[in-house]
Fold each of these.
Amino acid sequence: MSIRVTHYRAKCIGCFGCVALAPDRWRMSKKDGKSVLLGANEKKGVYTVAIEEDEFRVNEKAAKMCPARVIQVNKY
Ligand code: SF4
């Protein structure tokens, strides 16, 4: 099974929540104040990265608490 995290970055409001919860996978950008999904590939402004099972929980938590609802975590 593979797990994918998706970040619809354009609508990120830079609240810091995902970074606080999952600092191994998220950073704040000093450039524009939005978060950055580490290791992700960008396509049309949407960022995706495959993660391992051990990162699933914290990223799922981040997705649930994201006030802008711009994080998705999917298992395939
Ligand atoms: S929790 Fe959501 S809105 Fe807040 S910084 Fe992360 S992606 Fe952006």
Note: The longest strand covers residues 3-8.
Amino acid sequence: MTAAPLQDTRFRLSEEQARELAQAYGTPLYVVDEGHFRQRIQQYYEGFRAASPKGELSFASKANSTVALLKIAYQEGCSIDVASEGELRAALMAGVPASACHLHGNNKQESEIQFAVEQGIGMIVLDNFEEIELFGRMKALVEEKGVKLVIRLAPGVDPVTHAKISTGQADTKFGFNIVDGSGEKALKRTMELGLPTIGFHCHVGSQLLDPEAQISGGELIAKFAADMKANHGFETTYLNVGGGLGVMYTEKDVPMSHAEYCKAIVAAVTKALEGTGLDPKLAQEPGRSLIAESGVTLYRVGVVKTVPAKERGTRTYVCVDGGLSDNPRPALYGSKYTVELVSPSRSADASPVTVSGKHCETDKLFEDIQLPSDVQAGDLIQVLCTGAYNSSMASNYNRYQRPATALIRKDGSFSLVQRRDTWEEMLAREIVPEGLV
Ligand SMILES: Cc1ncc(COP(=O)(O)O)c(C=O)c1O
């Protein structure tokens, strides 16, 4: 399926904003624009509800679990998808009621499940037979807390995306396969145990610029729901087709619009349910497509170095004050980004440079970036589309402090929503046993 060309809707900082933010909070710095984020959710909802009036969006908090952002997502009508006790605790801190959260995980710990159920989580997505038996043992508490269960299915589709973010194929650790009969066995077991199962879920992959696999995933789980009604009289009232829609990291990435995608997926699901009498609530749980384009990372240039390089003659490294520990995606997935100089250019010529970080790795953070040839120490650069899977995937590698996150408020003012790590925090977990010689 080919996507219609989209405009560049990515948030970017003006030079003045970049300077003020760098001065106020230092660099590297994640920046998220509140108005942009709210608008993305509203646009997604508009497209979804036009196709499916009961449609529900759940914000996949793994994309960015900064508490203030979870609060915004909830205010805009999203429920919150959490993949761990930590993400659930962040949602609770944001003031999201547990009943508006749902918990995922292919190997949830019993303690995580216990915590989630005790909090009264709205929904838990079942991923394996061990969990089903555990819920059988916890049935009284699950019923008392009103927790609903959903079965995650692996529909057996191969999306066009990076292998590490592809999850819907048959050979996956996530969920129950439809093709080998595990999905049906799982449903039968939850029915035998009398568990409060309401429907099915799938998520086929992430950064999907061609959403064909997502659409077939949705269609396959809807057909499965139809079969389960025919075979077992099971009434599906909830179907979640996951997240996955891609975003514009560079101008080569042209995602389908939310509205077009929602129309296509709702049409496929509706057709698969025709004549069954089933009319489930449809849900989606996007992360990246709601928050990625609302965020940028601001870095300051330090060293600029030109070295001999095989095949290309020379390579110029423009080293910034962050890198692998605040954005592991280039190293993990070979991800490409759009990198822009925010300081005014003193030169009209641009040449390709490698923007590199400061970690002890031979990583090429952003390769073949066109920057003015006189880029120099002290310049500020912004990397677009870093609102998703950057702050949430940040580490302390090399004992660097994870960056702060600033929010640009709707009135243009700035608020810090997550501060930089402190040195005290960085060393707080250390224990040197007495008598260590
Ligand atoms: C189960 C599940 N739901 C939702 C998402 C969010 O996907 P995306 O950020 O691509 O929309 C993911 C991402 O990995 C996921 O695994």
Note: The pocket of pyridoxal-5'-phosphate is lined by residues 60, 62-63, 81, 104, 167, 203, 206, 242-244, 285-289 (CB under 6 Å).
Amino acid sequence: MAAMISNLDAPLGAEVTGVDLSKPLPQGDVDAIEAAWRTRLVVVIRAQTLSDPELLAFSRRFGELDPPGPNPYGEPFNKAYPEINVISNVVENGRPIGGLGDGEAVWHADMTYMEVPPKAAILHALEVPPEGGNTYFADMFAAYEALPEALKDAAEGRVAVHDASRNSAGMLRRGYREVTDVRETVGARHPLVRTDRATGRKALFLGRRPNGYVTGMSIADSEALLDALWAHATQTRFTMCHRWRAGDVLMWNNLAVLHRRDAFDPETRRVMHRTQIRGNERIA
Ligand SMILES: [Fe+2]
């Protein structure tokens, strides 16, 4: 049976059925998943049971992998497979087995503080809490296209710095100092408006809000522009919500969506394994 793709009842997102990702997929299925990822930006594949090597093998069908960003503890969470990041609130023997805890993770794209950020992320849910911990995605093509002209003009040609010092749960990464003046934020600089190479479509490219700064502007003007763009881009009309079940695999277009996560009950367990596909272009 070949992969079947159906759009979710949301502005973005597609569900793929008829695949078992633990087995090598026919190239036609890989192409169908990639096409859905390119056009619908988020791909949901339910009811998968993947070992770490199987998750890696599936991920590598879409390109080379990027290792996880630096975590607050200074060593990989998954020592046997360091390309896999662990997202979890579980603490074993006094040590977290993964990153990001149980709190809210505010809107962001992954690792945009790098010059060439990963183009895709793949997240496999092993254990999920009975409620909470939902993940939301916002379509940055749609957000750009709906921008008021004045904001479009204000963003055009502008470059912003994407802070490397904190992870998406707001924790300071090992080896970084607190940012006290956003003009000195350490991280990659990217244009606020990105043009998709394959399609020529434009998208907002915001990355992360804390410690962001639009270069060449006063801090007040930069804050005002970023606040306006973020408020616009994260409106519900551009978003979808994913309610996790154990066994879910999600793959998202990291250059074309923002995502955020709800908090969940710290007394419950949430364990996810994640890979990311290396980008092959500077943002332009
Ligand atoms: Fe993230």
Note: The pocket of fe (ii) ion is lined by residues 108, 110, 168, 259 (CB under 6 Å).
